[in-house]
């Protein structure tokens, strides 16, 4: 049997049904890379911290390491006096400890001497001979980080499927993770359509347009941790398209098609996807606007997915962001199956919608925290450069008025 969806289905149902039918997550190829090479990719396994960070108690300020009780109650009018015990040198473990009524000069980042549990900032002290005048009291732990306080030993640094990016790479580096396995899914992008020509073509033939979707999809996938190869353009000729389709699918784990939305071409594509080994064609259309003519198929035994996206650029990217990426995240078993940020924000002006399909409307984030819908047709390209994300209008919702909160999916 080809598949279980005979008509358009909701986006949420499609994602859930496909995940259950195909028993996601699936195993995936793994590559081991140097930390720097792994930036922008997704970890193939959970990364655990094998040592406490910081590995020693360290000072956050230039000042004097003390026992907090010895400085308690000190003020500019009633200072306390401590004996200077010594000096902590940067990058060296002090060979002395702090006893009662003693203080040791310590730089920012210096190792706290044994016995000390706080640091009095340098500007709150005055050196007078062998004495340290303390003009401000401190609490236990003030101006220091204890050993293992920030990242305890055994804490997870990165979840399986998590991205190595500016937010996570610092923790990996400080934990000494110099190499790590990353997900090595092979994703191929194939644009279709007799009217589509390569970007290198300077003189456009009548009725033709340069390929946009292939490059948009490659960039979008890369932004969210999935490396994809742009495989060029296939024409709509039945036999040639079928040959190219099977050739590309044989060499990848996920084949993404864009274009071919006209009835005849879409029907041919639908028949090809339905002819794949079990389960074949799973989704024959989505109840979303823009993006209805979306096809999703799979060969479960070979662990291969095919997603055929609409040809109009805005439709293509909308489905890629709201369906393709969440499907990929489910396929790899990521804890978070959402890309970007989903939030609720007030509209700066009315947004007309209709009940029936789930609608996604480009929007611009304002300085006051509101969002403004951007008028755009499914064939628009430039709107993506202006938009901060998409407003999601539920299937049962009509016009959303200015000032009302709307569900917003931000790229960030």
Automatic annotation (TrEMBL):
GO terms for biological process: Mo-molybdopterin cofactor biosynthetic process. It is an enzyme of class 2 (transferase). InterPro entries: MoaB/Mog-like_dom_sf, MoaB/Mog_dom, MoeA-like, MoeA_C_domain_IV, MoeA_C_domain_IV_sf, MoeA_linker/N, MoeA_linker/N_sf. GO terms for cellular component: cytoplasm. Residues 188-330 form the MoaB/Mog domain. It comes from the Bacteria. Keywords: Magnesium, Metal-binding, Molybdenum, Molybdenum cofactor biosynthesis, Transferase. It catalyses: adenylyl-molybdopterin + molybdate = Mo-molybdopterin + AMP + H(+). Pathway: Cofactor biosynthesis; molybdopterin biosynthesis. Its EC number is 2.10.1.1. Pfam families: MoCF_biosynth, MoeA_C, MoeA_N. Belongs to the MoeA family. Catalyzes the insertion of molybdate into adenylated molybdopterin with the concomitant release of AMP. This is Molybdopterin molybdenumtransferase. It comes from Cloacibacillus evryensis.
